[in-house]
Predict the structure.
Amino acid sequence: MLRKTSGSSLCYACGKLNRVDASVCFYCGRRNPGLWGFGPWLGRLAGRLDFARIVMVVCIAAYAASLLLDPAASMRPRGMFNLLSPSQGALLALGMTGAYPWQLGYWWTLLTAIYLHGSLLHIAFNLLWIHQLAPAVEQAYGRSRLVLIFTGGGVLGFVISNWAGVGTTIGASGAVFGLLGAMAAYGRSRGGLFGMAVFRQYWQWAVVLFVMGFLMPGVNNFAHAGGFVGGYLTGMIVGHGDSQLGRGLHRTAATAAVALTALAFALAVWNAFGA
C-alpha cells in the first residue's frame, strides 16, 4: 500500500510530526500536512533519489531526443568539438534559449536549455562536473538546496547571457558554475581554516574553468559568470543551517523548481509540435 491511513508523518512544509490524516498542520498551519496519506511514501521515494543522477538522466534523454529529431544533421562529419551535434532546429524545438527565443517570449527556455547540449564532448564534460560537484554541494547544503542552487545558477547564467545578446545558447555549464559559486559561498560563510580552504579550492576551480572557456570554441562565458554569481547568491540566501522550518521551506521551493522545469519542457514540446 502506497497510502498510509493511520499514524503520524512529518509535515512537508515545517518537518514536524502530525497525524497523517490531519487537515491542517498543528505547527505551521499548512493544509494536508501528510499529503493525503502519501507523504511517508513520497518521503521514502525522495530519499532514494540522487539529484545528480536524475540531472544526468534528463540531460542524456534530452540529448538523445535532439539527435533523433534530426538524425541526418547529427551524423554529418565534423571536428572533435562538434562530434554528434544536434541540429539548430532540433535544439530550438526542445527549448534552446538565447536572445532570439527570449525576444519571442519563450521564458521557459531559461530552464529547458540547462538540460540541452550541443555535442558529445559538451555533454560529457558537463556531466563529469555535475558528478564531481553535486555530492559536495548536497553534503554542505542538503538535497533541497542543491536543487535550488543548480536551478538558480543555470537560470541566472542564461539571463545574463540573453541580456548580453548571445543569440542562442544551451548547456548545464552555467549550473555547474552555480555549484562552484555555492561552494565558494559555503566556504566564506563557514570561515576558519576549513572554510577558507573550501573557498580557495572552488574559487580556483571556477577561475581555471572560466579561463579555459576563452581557449575553447563556442563557449558562453557570460552564462558561466552569471551561473557562478547565481549559485553564490542562492547559497547565501538559502544558507547552510539546519532548522526544521528552513528544511520545510527549502523542500517546498525545490519541489516548485522541479515542477516548473517539468512545465517548461511541456511548454517547449507544445510550442514546437502541438501549437
